[in-house]
Structure formats: C-alpha cells, structure tokens
Design goal:
The protein is an alpha+beta fold. The protein has two domains: 2-17 and 103-383, no CATH class; 23-100, no CATH class. The chain has helices spanning 44-49, 53-64, 68-77, 115-132, 142-146, 235-239, 247-250, 255-283, 292-306, 322-326, 334-341, and strands at residues 2-10, 24-25, 30-33, 38-42, 86-91, 99-101, 112-113, 157-159, 162-164, 169-179, 183-187, 194-195, 205-209, 220-227, 311-315, 355-362, 371-374, 378-383. The strands form three sheets. Strands 2, 6, 10, 11, 12, 13, 16 and 17 form an eight-stranded mixed sheet that branches.
C-alpha cells in the first residue's frame, strides 16, 4: 500500500459541523462579555458535575425551561465557575444572541478535520476532472466515471482524520446574494429581505471555526493518504485495470506519481474555481466588498495555490453551498450559471447558484471599524517527503 504523509494548514476559517443538538447554547455552553468583547466557551459537563445536590435542584428548573440566561446568572453569582471549566476564550466585537454551530471533535476532545470531509472534497474534484474530459453533457453519470459500488475508484483512496494543533474561534457568517440587474446584496431576513447595505446584526449565523492565523495562532495538522488499499503499490494496475473506469486518468503506475497527479488536479481545480469566483463578485458588485482587501485575498489565494509544486489549496467543510456538493463540474462561468438558473426554479430546494456564505470579522489593529470579508473553507495541503 502506498502511504503518503501530508501537512495541512488552515488558510481561511474552516467549519465542519456536528449535529444541531451539539450546538453551543448561550448561557449554558458559552458566555459573551460585551464590555470586554470576549466569548468564553464552557465545559458545561464539568460545571454540572461539580454542583452539589442543592445547586443541582436550583439549576434544574432553569435548564428544563430553557432559561439559560438565569442559569448563567445563578452560576456567576454563586461563583461556581473555575478555570478548568473553560474550554477557551475568543475576542470578537460581534455578539451571538442564540447559539453557535459547533465544530467537530473526536472522543478525546480534539478538534479535527475528518478524513471523510477531505475525501468528499477530493471526490468532487475527481468527478469534475473526469466529467470535463469525458465529452459528457448534462447530468453526470457517476457510475460511468468512477465505477460501481464494488469497484468504485474512491474505494482505493483512504484518507485519515487530521487532528489540529490549536483551539478554534467564533466567526459570524452572512449570506451574499447575486440579485437581478447585476446587483450584489446581503440577506437580512429569512424570506426575502435583501438589501445593498451590509448589516452585522441581522440574519447572521455564528460558527465555531478553525483559525487561519489572522486573529490567532495559525492552525495546522497532519494526515495520510494511501492508494491501492490492501494490494500494494501496483495493485490497481495489476489486478483492477479492467474493472475500474478511468483508472489511468487518475492514478499513476505507483503511489508517488499518484500523489503528484492528485495534487496537480486539485491545484488546477482550485485555480479555476477562484478565477470564476473573482469574476462572479466583480459582476455582482456590492459596496461592502469594493475595498481592495477582499479581492486582494482572492487573488492571493490563487497565487498561494500555485506557489509550490508539492502543495495546493483545497476547499472543504460547511458554508460552501453547491460548490462543495457538485465540484463545479457543470459550469464554465458562475455568472451564466446564476442567470441561466434564475428563472428555472421549481421550489425552494432547487439550486439557483446565486448565494455565497461569507465570513466577516474585525482585524485586531486598533481600528474596530475595519472588517475583513473572506470565503471560508480553504486549507493548504502539502506532500511531505516520506
């Protein structure tokens, strides 16, 4: 089996979610100090297990009725909080009044990027590559491109989890919409409510996200990719050549050439995606995104993606919408994708390809009015010498 060690660095904030029942609830799982502008994430299990019998009785009514603000007030007045009950603290000028979507952790409490998330993103890129070179049009035929269940190409790519080396942070996210007449607007309420002006309070979702080093220490980790599963370096070509479609278009004849080929495909896919996104945001202009920093960062991502032969940028996790699901295999232009599908919706769940989720945050440079807008989900993966 060809096993390759790779490093991973968070380039823009990344969120891989858990079930909604795991979300942080204000007052129970986190506190926001408005005067200091600091979130404190609590280890509520440790707090609850430290309570005496009388204290448990006092807080039970608060929790059963969902009165988390009263629960929080009670434990603060009783001085029941101690340092070992804090998971981490995070500075932010934006206050969440409801709940925070939690990033996934393993059973030991480590924040991580699951191998399934990495593999899912890579799968979309492989489909995109194969589709664009197949001569197909219209709906994608996954079986023809990747194979059936028994001999699916993805069965022979194994990817481990990536455990990260630091704590995450709390980031606000807002929906940007490409509206008619080439206008870019912000969503301010659930149904409709699009406006030109940016508002940091209305219809904002808060996420626990892996940090990219702008307001914190950079986040990094390591993971492994193996090819060929149980059969050795040449297993795919020796045993499965005639059973797996498009084998030679994805894999080289050994593990080393396979990892180089994979990085090259990811690199090209990300470069194409960023170029299409830049044109999308230029076309659907909005005053909040006209400052150079947003477009400078998109162009920097393109350069960083192409900078080193053994590394590339990969996009994964939540807040990517249809891009993360489809791999962009259908569209040469995101502008035409939006306009062509604008009037073809048969229900709310049909894709219009017109929205983007954008992280916004402040820069700790003494000027809280400066906001940073960024597309989430980019990581840099680099092949290490084995």
């Amino acid at each position: 089996m060809a096993i390759h060690n790779l490093s991973l660095e968070i380039i823009t904030p990344v969120h891989v979610g858990m079930g909604r029942e795991k979300n942080y609830i204000k007052g129970l799982d986190f506190i926001y100090n408005k005067a200091q502008g600091i979130y404190t994430i609590l280890l509520s299990d440790k707090l609850l297990s430290s309570l005496s019998g009388s204290e448990i009785g006092a807080v039970s009514s608060f929790l059963s009725n969902g009165a988390f603000d009263k629960f929080n007030e009670y434990v603060k007045n009783k001085k029941l909080l101690s340092d070992e009950m804090f998971s981490y603290k995070w500075p932010s000028q934006y206050e969440c009044n409801d709940e925070i979507k939690r990033h996934i952790q393993d059973g030991l409490g480590h924040w991580l990027i699951p191998g399934s998330s990495l593999k899912g993103s890579i799968r979309g890129i492989l489909l995109s590559h194969l589709y664009n070179n197949s001569g197909q049009h219209g709906a994608i035929n996954e079986k023809a491109l990747l194979g059936d269940i028994e001999n699916n190409l993805m069965r022979f790519i194994q990817i481990s989890d990536c455990v990260l080396n630091t704590t995450p942070g709390i980031y606000p996210v807002k929906i940007f919409s490409a509206d008619p007449n080439n206008e870019g607007r912000w969503k301010h309420q659930r149904n409709g409510g699009h406006r030109n002006d940016f508002n940091s309070k209305d219809f904002v979702t808060y996420y626990e996200m892996l940090n990219d080093g702008v307001n914190s220490e950079p986040t990094s980790g390591e993971f492994r990719i193996s090819f060929g599963n149980w059969g050795g370096d040449n297993f795919l070509f020796d045993k499965k050549r005639n059973e797996i479609p498009n084998l030679s278009k994805i894999f080289g004849h050994n593990g080393e050439s396979s990892i180089r080929q994979l990085i090259k495909m990811i690199k090209q896919h990300t470069d194409n995606f960023l170029e299409k996104e830049i044109k999308f945001f230029e076309n659907y202009a909005n005053s909040a995104l006209t400052n150079d920093t947003f477009f400078d960062e998109l162009r920097w991502l393109k350069k960083e993606n192409m900078r080193e032969e053994k590394s590339c940028l990969l996009r994964l996790g939540a807040n990517e919408g249809w891009h993360s699901i489809t791999g962009d295999w259908k569209f040469d232009s995101f502008i035409s994708a939006t306009e062509n599908n604008r009037n073809n919706l048969n229900g709310r769940m049909q894709k219009a390809y017109k929205t983007r989720k954008i992280v916004f945050d402040w820069k700790p440079d003494g000027n809280d009015d400066i906001e940073r807008f960024v597309l989430p989900g980019f990581v840099k993966i680099s092949h290490k010498n084995n």
